[in-house]
Write a structure and sequence with these properties.
The chain has helices spanning 18-26, 46-60, 73-84, 103-108, 113-118, 123-138, 173-178, 180-191; strands spanning 4-7, 32-35, 66-71, 89-95, 140-145, 164-167. With 193 residues, it is an alpha/beta fold. The protein has a six-stranded parallel β-sheet with strand order 2-1-3-4-5-6, sandwiched between helices.
Length: 193
């Protein structure tokens, strides 16, 4: 199995995916990379973070292929990277990623460019969704979502069109990251050929 690269979400860090990482380690996955971007409160555009991700991968990942596990906003960063840079991604698994934007960003998007990218119907969201068909032919895409997500509302909008998807019964956005069903689904997606 190829190494895993984790990408956290908005205002997050390793704590977003630590339970998933620990679960995968118990299942025998040894090689794990972590992309912990610092400007995670919307201070910069998601395109800028995707460019930073490209630099991180070029500098740190020596393997020919990796799989990405991306949490929430991290899924949009992963897809921006995949669409705009020569990459090594074999699989991309997103958890509660706002593929149609998020209502709370619409309310506060006047604050900065990163939040504007997350707004419903932003140019960034439109570009990411328009590029999905191209990347899907080369990269296996998976999405995990919960119907009770009030950050990515409605929750089904975290279901990526054209991907294999899994609905998990978590009572809210952040709890879906730590759900046993999420951890199990990620492991099963990673094992698929």
């Amino acid at each position: 199995m190829e190494p895993i690269l984790f990408i956290h979400g908005f205002s997050g860090g390793r704590f977003h995916y630590l339970p998933i990482e620990n679960y995968l380690k118990k299942k025998g996955i040894k090689k794990i990379y972590e992309f912990n971007y610092k400007k995670n409160f919307g201070q910069v555009s998601l395109r800028e973070i995707a460019k930073e991700l490209d630099g991180f991968i070029k500098e740190n990942v020596k393997e020919k292929q990796i799989s990405i596990v991306a949490i929430s906003q991290g899924g949009l960063i992963a897809h921006c990277y995949i669409q705009n840079y020569k990459n090594k991604v074999k699989k991309c698994i997103s958890v509660c990623t706002p593929y149609k934007g998020t209502w709370w960003a619409n309310v506060s998007s006047f604050l900065n460019s990163g939040l504007k990218d997350l707004s419903m119907n932003s140019n960034f969201i439109k570009e990411i969704n328009a590029g999905m068909n191209k990347e899907g032919r080369k990269i296996k895409l998976y999405s995990i979502w919960t119907p009770f997500d009030i950050i990515v509302f409605p929750g089904v909008s975290a279901k990526l069109k054209g991907s294999k998807s899994k609905m998990v019964w978590a009572i809210e956005h952040h709890l879906a990251f730590w759900s046993f069903a999420t951890k199990k689904a990620i492991y099963e997606f990673l094992r698929q050929k």
